[in-house]
Amino acid sequence: MSDSSKFQNGLPDGWELVVGLEVHVELATKTKLFSASPNRFGDEPNTNIDPVTLGLPGALPVLNEHAVELAMRIGLALNCSVQPCTFHRKNYFYPDLPKAYQISQYDQPLNVDGYLMLPGNVRVEVERAHLEEDTGKSTHFGGAGGRIHGSEYSLIDFNRAGVPLVEIVSRPDIRTAEQAKQYVSELRAILVAIGASDAKMEEGSMRCDANVSVRRFGDPLGTRCEIKNVNSVRSLGRAIEYEARRQVDILETGGSIRQETRHWDDAEGRTHTLRTKEDADDYRYFLEPDLVPLAPDAAWVERVRSALPALPAARRALLAALTGADVEGEAVSVVVERGQDPYVKSVVDAGGEAGRALVWVQQSFAEEGESPRLPAKDLAALTVMEREGKITATQAKTVLGEMLANGGGDPVAIAASKGFEALDTSSIATFVDDAIAAQPDAWAKYCAGEEKAAGALVGAIMKASKGKADGKVVTAMLQERRGS
Amino acid sequence: MSDFGTVASIAADVASGRASARAILEQHLVRIDTREGEVHAFNLVMRERALESAAEIDDRVKRGDNPGRLAGVPVALKDNMCTRGVDTTCSSRILEGWKPPYDATAVKKLAAEGAVFIGKTNLDEFAMGSSTENSAFGPTRNPLDTSRVPGGSSGGSAAAVAAGFAAGSLGSDTGGSIRQPAALCGLVGVKPTYGLVSRYGLVAFASSLDQIGPFTHTVEDAAILTEVIAGHDPMDSTSIPQPAPDLVGVLGAGVKGLRIGRVADLPKGADPDVLARLDAAFDALAEAGATIVDVRLPSLSFALTAYYLIAPAEASSNLARYDGVRYGKRVAAGDINTMYADTRESGFGDEVKRRIMLGTYALSAGYYDAYYGKALKVRRLIADDFARAYADADVILTPTSPSVAFRFGSKTDDPLAMYLCDIFTIPTNLAGHPAMSVPFGTGQDGMPVGVQVLAPTLGEATMFRAAAELERAV
Fold it and tell me: How many CB atoms lie within 10 A of CB A388?
């Protein structure tokens, strides 16, 4: 571990954070994992149900082939091996678990032994990614803290029961809260890119539990606590940092960590005990006798593998190479996440300036989808005008706004109609000298090193030039005259 | 053989117009009115619905439409098969009042061939038992001698056919629950190959062992009902993906050249009268041209123990859904855990609780390997034994039940004695093979004795050939 990590996570010197993540994602199938009821979020409660979903006596599960295919996509995108697998029953009583067992995968999961790369060449091993069914959703009324115990009554919505999930389990390879956030963000980007899930943490279609422990550098792994109820990437970082600090405080005062499941309270910014290891259910896993083993043949696996789209990491690398931007920078990651990297490429293919195209798409295309309405050749023409110094960045932004509003247009014509043209250097120099003469106080302050004072001068120059002076040129001239 | 009409004769009479479905139904309803009070075969007699179905069949015949292979045949259904809108109780208080919103696949297939459902029959609660004494609604009596049990768990389905309340019935067989009551009531009873008949809509006891099959008076009737209910069902993942076999067509083929296996190391426990009838069965088949060969099944002595770990383990999970939350009985309480406990305490009978506890224990952390895990290994050994035996034999004959029908209460205080009733039937379920019981004369006190014909996976055709020969030889 590099030195710098010692000072991350807000931990005292010498302590190392160790995190493994269990991420559940709902698959974007039309129907449930074992029945024909719709898999749809937000419907009237208890409308997407059937005998299988409700666990009625005599109802039997039938595996959804599309769910298997999406699960295989996830496994292959995470560099896993797809293997013959079986389903098990995980037995426990809870009102939103209709059969009193969850059909899951146990010792023979579909996907095993993959990995995910994070920025800085950090490799996080993926132990497994297995299929299972979701539970219903309980809401508890009255009593304390929205929990079933002590509540007056509870309502259950079984629309979610039987929705296909893939649980992706990482090895404890994560060393900072930042890496944990990067892992979840990257995983989310992959899931969306391959069409496996919409992966919305706020809607619960992506849920994340963190196994957190701390140790002194070089020591064996410490006792871990599992943190539940983390509902956003930001909360994940906060929860991990809080939990790590809590554990270090206990250990530094001579205490020991109890293995337990803890609940993250986002409002309070702390975790508290949900249940200890002693209270944990004995799930009595055994092979699900209502299903047969699943052994995807090699041809099916290859079909799924070859149909996988380019993954975000590869697309970021391509976009960075095309535009000269930082592969780990925000512009590249935002544009790839929006799926607009092919658009940037088409702007470049139409003769556009790659770097400027990336910037404009990042800054002004947030509302556009994967296929922006603006023809690539129009944006290309705009970036060419900028390159040739025919228009300032501010003017270009106005022109682009109009092009986007109209779904296209010739930037040369739009700039002309607005009287936009970039001023030549000698004209700008006149405006600069006029401004210095008009505001001697501001000039004096600026010369004394007060950078903020430049604002008044630049403002005056821009006003006088009707916005046609290029801001960068103006600033450079002011600095030149000050002698800095 | 009985004086009541057979499935084949009733269907032929109704289809040809010689008899109306309504008249046939009324004959059966009269018998029910006369004897049901004493026998208690039914949890529910579906009088009105049956009259409606019979009228519909008669209309079809009048219109000249095909009324189906089972036109107007009164059929009784074990009360663990889902019937849309009709109470399905499993003879348990915990399901009282529950009406399924769908039909079991086997039920649908019978209805599509014109069967008339006459009622839902009594059983040991959730099919757990060998005498039908474990029903929450009181025992069923053997129509041949009402001081004796009809066997179980499908005792109601057996009694209904034996008493002439129905021409045929469906039962379910997890460890012998069709074959043993068939033997005790003098009927033909079939447990098909696991996966031949869809389990969709059969309330699960032990999913890897349960299989639906018929009770009838004749081997031909059993073949007809098996053909109707068999075949692939996409709603059951364990259903075998192939069409129903032709069984009626093989009944006259005889047994010339067939190799009939005699188990040289048959587990002890069968009564002498039962073993005498088994010997007679071998003689009859030999006389008809079959060869008798000795086979060995050394793992058979472990079958009962393995079964009483595997079946309860699956049952403990299958029956966990009866929690008072969504349907059936609920005992109100102040918190969820008390509600669960009170509902299950009052909803389940003793035998069901015994098996849930046994199964929960067998699957628990620290005990799984020693109990459930080991039982699975025994299951494998039994399948291996059978595979070797079937290299030498086409079918195997054993007793069905160690004894003729016993008297009420004689085994109720001793669960182990009751469990031993299934010693000859259980291995088939563990192996997933087909087997059937055929009446073959009488034993002690003139009560019927059944001979069991066992066959390898999907060996139904050969099994029925041998069974038909035994029937001819009685």
Answer: 10
Q: Which two tokens stand for residue A170?
A: 């990482």
Element spanning B213, H or E: strand B211-216
Q: How far is B336 from chain A (nearest CA, A)?
A: 8
Looking at the complex, report in whole angstroms how far the Cα of residue A62 sits from the nearest Cα belonging to chain B: 6
Closest A-chain CA to B202: A58
Question: How close, in Å, is residue B367 to chain A by CA atoms?
Answer: 10
Residue tagged 């604002």 (tokens): A455
Spell out the residues 6+ positions from residue A43 whose beta carbon is closer than 8 angstroms to its own.
A159
Task: Return the residue matching tokens 């009751």.
Answer: B418
DSSP secondary structure string, A75-117? HHHTTPEE--B--EEEE---TT-TTSEEEE--SS-SEEEEEEE
Crossing angle for the helix pair A354-364 and A393-406, to the nearest 10 degrees: 60
Q: Read off φ and ψ for residue B82, nearest 5 degrees.
A: -70, 130
Which residue do the tokens 């989808």 mark? A369
Q: Write the pLDDT tens digit of every residue in A168-209.
A: 999 999 999 999 999 999 999 999 999 999 999 988 999 999
User: What pLDDT, on the 0 to 100 scale, is given for residue A462?
Assistant: 85
Closest among A444, A456, A427 to A482, alpha carbons compared = A444
Does the pLDDT value for residue B316 go beyond 90? yes
Sorted by where each starts, the structural domains of chain A and their CATH numbers stand as: 3-305 (no CATH), 312-417 (no CATH), 425-482 (1.10.10.410)
Give the CA radius of gyration of chain B.
21
* CA of residue A33 relative to chain centroid, distance: 25
Backbone angles phi, psi at B450, to 5 degrees: -110, 145
- What residues does each domain of chain B span? 7-250
- When CB atoms are compared, the residue of A58, A101, A291 closest to B203 is A58
pLDDT reported for residue A388: 82
Q: In the 8-state DSSP scheme, what is residue B116? A: E
Which residues from B are below 8 Å from A57, CB to CB? 82, 88, 90, 95, 98, 100, 203-204, 321
- Which residues, other chains included, contact B370 with Cβ-Cβ below 8 Å and sequence gap of 6+? none
Q: Which CATH superfamily is domain B7-250 in?
A: Amidase signature (AS) domain (3.90.1300.10)
Give pLDDT tens digits for B387-412: 999 999 999 999 999 999 999 999 88
Alpha-carbon distance of B122 to B120, in angstroms, equals 7
Q: Decide if B372 and A286 are in contact by the 8 Å CB cutoff.
A: yes
What is d(CA B474, CA B465) in angstroms, rounded to the nearest whole number? 15
pLDDT surpasses 60 at A1: no
CA angle B78-B83-B87, nearest 5°? 80
pTM score of the predicted model: 0.90
Q: Report CA-CA distances (Å) from A374 to A344, A394, A407, A457.
A: 12, 19, 5, 36
Among the ranges given (A331-340, B16-25, B291-300), the one the predictor scored with the smallest mean pLDDT: A331-340
What would the two tokens of residue A71 be? 């699960």
| Closest residue on chain B to A291 (Cα) | B237
Is residue B177 annotated as part of the catalytic site, yes or no? yes
